[in-house]
Amino acid sequence: MATAAGDAILSVRDLRISFGTYAGEVEAVRGASFDLRRGETLAIVGESGSGKSVAARSIMGLNPESNTIVRGGEILFEGEDLLTLSERRMQGVRGPKIAMVFQDPMSSLDPTMKIGRQIEESLRKHLNLSGARARERSVELLKLVGIPNAEARLKQYPHQFSGGMRQRVVIAIALACDPKVLIADEPTTALDVTIQAQILELTRELQDRLGMSIILITHDLGVVASTAHRVAVMYGGRIVETGTVREIFYNPQMPYTWGLLASIPSPNADRSEELIPIPGTPPDAIDPPRGCPFDARCPYAMKVCGDEMPEPTTFSPEHWAACWLHHPMAPKVEPPARVRGER
Amino acid sequence: METTNRQITLTPELFEPAQRSTQEAEKITGAPTGFWSDAWRRLRRNRIAVVAGAVILLVLVLAFGGPWLTSYTPTGQDLTRQYTEPSLSGFWFGTDQFGRSMFDRVWVGTRVSLYIAALVTAMDIFVGMSYGALSGYYGGRVDNIMQRIVEILVGVPILVVAVLTMLILKPGILSLTIAIGLTGWTSSARLIRGQVLKLKEQEFFLASRSLGASTFRLISKHLLPNVFYIVIITLMYTVPTAVFFEAFLSFIGLGIQPPDASLGALISDGAHQMRFYPFLLIYPALVLCLITVGFRLLGDGLRDALDPRMRK
Amino acid sequence: MLKYMLKRLVNAFVVLFIIATATWFLMQLLPGSPIQNAEKLTDEQEAQVGEQYNLDKPLPVQYGLYMVGLAHGDLGDSYQFGGKPVTEILMQRFPVSAFLGTQAIIVGVVVGLLLGVIGALKQNTIWDSAAAFLAVLGVSVPDFVLAPLAQYWLGLKLGIFPIAFFESWWHSVLPSLVLSTVIAAVIATFTRTEMLEVLGQDYVTLAKSKGLSRLAVILRHVLRNSLIPLVTILVPLTAALITGTLIVETVFSIPGIGEQFVRSIFDKDFPIIMGTTLLYAFFFVASYLLQDFLYGIIDPRIRVAGHKE
Q1: Three-class secondary structure of residue A75 per DSSP
Q2: Which of residues B152 and C147 earns the better pLDDT score?
Q3: ipTM, two decimals
Q4: pTM score, two decimals?
Q5: Is A280 near chain B, with CB under 8 Å?
Q6: Contacts of residue B293 in chain C, CB cutoff 8 Å?
Q7: Model confidence pLDDT, tens digit, residues B47-63
């Protein structure tokens, strides 16, 4: 997959987002930074609890108002910091500029509203289309995402569609106003494997056709390999490594990334090879560790890892990782055999 | 790339491997959480529920121990001291038209009302649970028929059943219990049946069954713990409903008759004489409200605390 | 849809049939008959009264006559009031009760919805706590406590409202208000819970992600999905309303069906008691049917597919 070079259309800088809960302040995102380049697909990879969904929703300002606290950072898009925009102006961004596709197609659509109407809502609000024009465009959109019998389908309700079809509808809604950026939050996790492949194929096609930039959030490295140009690995509310797909898969520099790659079962392996999951669970977001978030589970952890947050080290124009192992004073460490063997 | 403001001095020892066992990696930072301790903690934090619980406890204690606090009795009549206003030095809740101590009467009445409510709740749980469990467990035709019956019973309002029952039976604790509890068990039955059906599909159930476990063992070991919290919550809501209905029936003359006391009978009397002696109404009414409000708030609190979804 | 409604109708009939039969049985078991209420009658007069009330026919025939009569809306004759038909007595009083009830429903629904929506939108603020507290009070404080208290404070002491009887519209305000408390409380709690549930749903977030205004999201997606389940409480609400009117009419001496019912219990006028009970049962079952009907219309799954999936 060719790397898409280009300038950043969306930049997230040192984003810090917390939630106020009855148990205390939950620090979901603790200084995450990443760029989305024009026309590329950036995959944000991480376990549940890493903060990736929260970060994505923050871009669109979709976190619950009542208890979300923006503790710092900027989200730069078209010359403005989205975090500072008023709700009114954000409404102008959502839809026409940035759109989102959610994880569970079963619950993403209003069960009591016809599909056609749900698509037309965007069209009416942002493009001022109505009546026949709106319907035309809706039919176009359904055709675009590969739903047959579009005219008839417009009058139907979500429960009359299968899971994969519903996700296509959600994509159609997202594309309604030709957004520049599409954020897909685990779009295929709730779908069967075969449907997954179809949806991913669809997004690739759409990207080629429409030139959108896509942020793809996932925990599935297989999806990353087949769809993304660049990857950002997220853990404990921070981005710990970033690079092109090749760089991440073939030359990963951070133990967490090694762990992720090592835990993919290899189709070529025989039964004697153990599956290597990463032991332990993600850090407590209410009481986050002071140093590197991966410290507690890292087999290469050093004393400094628990005390101080590592600075990122750059390996190539696209590739950087934040780990104390790269410090000149650290011992030289080789990635585990399995990771090295992935050549 | 972020800039740190602090200057960190890095020494070579810091780059030695950190001594750590795998157990630490598995350690979930933060206080330990189990389902029940989690729930208990959440409940304790809910101040309203805690207050409600305390109030109910107070009422219970007074219901049984209240009359001991005074030298008067609930039935001792003395017409020379009828209708005395409540005062701290004399009768705390005043006296009624027969000169009986309202304080004593109220707590005795509370006892009766709570007793009836307890009986109704017991009936609700036993009949409802058994019915629902059996219906769900056997499934098929049996289940179908049993559910049809429930559907019909549900369509009959408690009011109608209670009134009709009280008309033929002589008013008394047992008859009231039957009247109120006759159709109320249906919601418990449905809930339990739902749980049983869900459990039937789970693997450990099939596993135990294939190992030859008897029906009883299956029910007691697998079903009961899972439905425990449903039972508790149902309890919390059945008690105030039963107390309400008993009071309602007494109010319209079908409940506990004088000279026996129950909260409903006392409120009914009090309402009739409220024009001149409001205290006759206020005290029993207050106790009734404390019970209903208390159980409901506690029930809400328990439900919130035990709801697995709230664990987020 | 039609199939569904037919099933529900049959069920309703079965319930009513059972209740009517049970009522008739009870009538037979009850002590007291028209003859007891009069002074000593001669044998001839006794026979006459017996004939009038069909007491001389064999039991199964009496049952049959009774059921046929029911089908025609004949609820028998009262033991008092000189044998006036129960139906007539009840119909006379019906408009009064209906008026009180309707007023109570209107006030209850409006206040309830307001409290519920405010509670959900301003979750965990002082408004929410206040609304929730009022709701709990409304449900837990029984009408037979609230009514006399309201009568005492607002009627007697403060003199704002008249204490009893039904001489003008103003007389109906306090009773209706008391009656409406339960309705408002139940609707408020329910609406708030539903709204909160809906607000947390993915499709609401999706709606927001389309760039719709907050108002549009609430009006078009949240409200509709939150209010639909309100249909579920139609039945318990009817039950609460009926029990409420019984009490409120008695306390405020309003000449409605409820007041008559309570009076008949004291007077042991069994035909009226039975008749009213049947009437109430009828309303209850009717509300059940209405609920089922509304479900059918509102839930597109039933409407389109003809049955629930």
Answers
A1: strand
A2: C147
A3: 0.84
A4: 0.77
A5: yes
A6: 136-137, 140-141
A7: 778 888 899 999 888 88
pLDDT in tens, B278-293: 888 888 899 999 999 8
- How far is the CA of A29 from the CAs of A41, A236, B29, in angstroms? 21, 7, 18
Residues 7-66 of B with CB under 8 A from A: 8, 10, 12-18, 20, 22, 24-30, 45
Determine the residue among A58, A110, A126 to mutate to test chain C binding: the one whose Cβ has the most chain C Cβ atoms within 10 Å. Answer: A110
Distance from the B120 Cα atom to the nearest Cα atom in chain C, whole angstroms: 18
- Is residue B75 very low, low, confident or very high in pLDDT (cuts 50, 70, 90)? confident
The pLDDT of residue A97 is 92
Distance from CA of C294 to the nearest CA of A (A): 14
The beta-carbon neighbor of C277 closest among B158, B163, B252 is B163
A partners (3+ CB pairs within 8 A) are B, C
Which residues of chain B neighbour A296 with C-beta distances below 8 Å? 20, 24-25, 27, 29
C282 touches chain B (CB under 8 A): no
CB contact B229 to C (< 8 Å): no
Handedness of CA A136, A156, A91, A14 (dihedral sign): negative
In terms of DSSP bridges, do strands A320-322 and A312-314 run parallel, antiparallel, or are they unpaired?
antiparallel
- B87-113: per-residue pLDDT in tens? 777 777 888 888 888 888 888 889 989
Residue B207: band (very low, low, confident or very high) from pLDDT cuts 50, 70, 90: low
Q: To the nearest whole angstrom, how far is the Cα of C8 from the nearest Cα of chain A?
A: 24
Which of B158, B155, B251 is closest to C258 using CA atoms?
B251
pLDDT tens-digit readout, C232-270 = 888 888 888 888 888 888 888 888 888 888 888 877 777
pLDDT of residue C299: 66
CB C175 within 8 A of CB C278: no
3-state DSSP assignment of residue A269: coil
Q: C11 at the B interface (CB within 8 A)?
A: yes
Instruction: Find, in chain B, the residue whose alpha carbon is nearest to that of C139.
Output: B293
Give the closest-approach CA distance of B21 to chain C in angstroms: 41
CA pseudo-torsion sign A102, A105, A111, A115: positive
Q: Do C19 and B253 touch (CB under 8 A)?
A: no
> Which tens digits make up the pLDDT trace of C69-118?
777 777 777 766 666 777 888 888 888 899 989 999 999 999 999 998 88
Give the C-alpha separation, A69 to A29, whole Å: 11
Q: Tens of pLDDT along A193-213? A: 888 888 888 888 888 888 899
- For chain A, the distance separating the N- and C-terminal CA atoms, rounded to the nearest angstrom, is 16
- Residue from C8, C145, C247, C273 whose CB has the most chain B CBs within 10 Å, to mutate: C145
User: Which residues contact residue A27 at a Cβ distance below 8 angstroms, ignoring those fewer than 6 apart?
Assistant: A16, A17, A18, A71, A237, A285, A286, A288
Closest approach of B275 to chain C, Cα-based (Å): 7
Which residue of chain A is at minimal alpha-carbon distance from B38?
A: A23
